[in-house]
Amino acid sequence: MNTGATYRQPWIGKAWTDILFILLPPFGCLLFIACYPQLFQNNAELSDSWWILLILLVDVAHVYSTLYRTYFDGQTFQRQKALLTSIPFFAFVAGVVLYSISSIFFWRLLAYTAVFHFIRQQYGFMRIYSRKENIPAWCKKVDIFTIYYATIFPILYWHLSSPRNFNWFIAGDFLQVKSAFLLNCFYVVYIAMIVVYVIKELWLIGKTRKCNVPRIAIITGTILSWYFGIVYFNGDMAFTLLNVVSHGIPYMALVWIHGIKNKEALPRKSFLNRVFSRYGIILFLLIIFLLAYLEEGLWDMMVWKERDTIFTFFASQKMNVSSTLLNIIVPLLALPQITHYVIDGFIWKIKQDNFKWNNEVAQPGKPI
Asked: Maximum distance among all alpha carbons in the chain?
């Protein structure tokens, strides 16, 4: 039996990369909030500087990082051409139909799809960090329940409590059914979940003399970021910081790790070979930042008209778009996001892709 001293942690890439960019974000955000609580407690609006940092450079940019895993990868695109072309086409058609029926229904469905995507990412990371473990089935079930309920309970709280000072996309995108009784019941289950998880983890460490640090960190970080971001704090800044950073930074890190690990299989002079070179991270980020800026500029020019100081060029080109034209424009501008949500359920499960997790070939069926 391996002892805790010789147990090799199941890192995805290098240990420092996993720690800094996948595991640390929720803890770092919480530490920052703890240092400046007055800034976060009931803040109902993001300043332009925070909006640029959190929404533009993380939330929107991480959506475009999917391109490096799909459309920018010629080999992957050719193998999965039917999937990668049909998803945006059908997503756009469905978006136009839904928005034409009801704009709030369109945003509501998009919000719940986003929630599912965020939850599944946490589950996916937990599964990856559990891949080397040979533990009792009941321990695995506790982990699965914990990672899911740690994310679902705050969403239930959002639905059943008083309206929050923040939205996922727009005001009213989540249904609101206030019920103190149901909320208390779900709260009891939440507390029980934490107690059972802690007991299970202590028992497992004592039994195996091993401590799976990244799995524990991803589960603990998920519990803390979702609870404090939605339940404890009632401010847009706290929610956005914990929600966006804890999701977007790890996702971009995962795409980067995948590219580095599979660089040898790329044609020598290909675009991606240059991107995933020693200093290619600059190009990697600049491209997705530029795409994010262009998308948000178009949103502001044609739909939101809120941030003239950020999008000065687009502000000078502002358009009064008719409601009929919005039925096409909104689904079109939302298409990168919709495609990201849908396609992400497939790209990490493609059997032909030998994604090496720390010099191992990943088993298919473990989505991120």
From this structure: 69
Contact 248/58 with Cβ under 8 angstroms?
A: yes
Contact 227, 152 (CB under 8 A): no
Q: Tell me if 362 sits within 8 A of 124, measured CB to CB.
A: no
Beta-carbon neighbour count of residue 276 at 10 Å? 23
Distance separating alpha carbons of residues 161 and 156, to the nearest angstrom: 8
Cα distance between residue 10 and residue 275, in whole Å: 26
- State both tokens at 22: 């996948």
| pTM for this prediction | 0.89
Digit-coded pLDDT (tens) for 77-96: 888 899 999 999 999 999 99
pLDDT of 310 above 70: yes
CA 292 centroid distance within chain: 16
Pair of tokens at residue 259: 């590219």
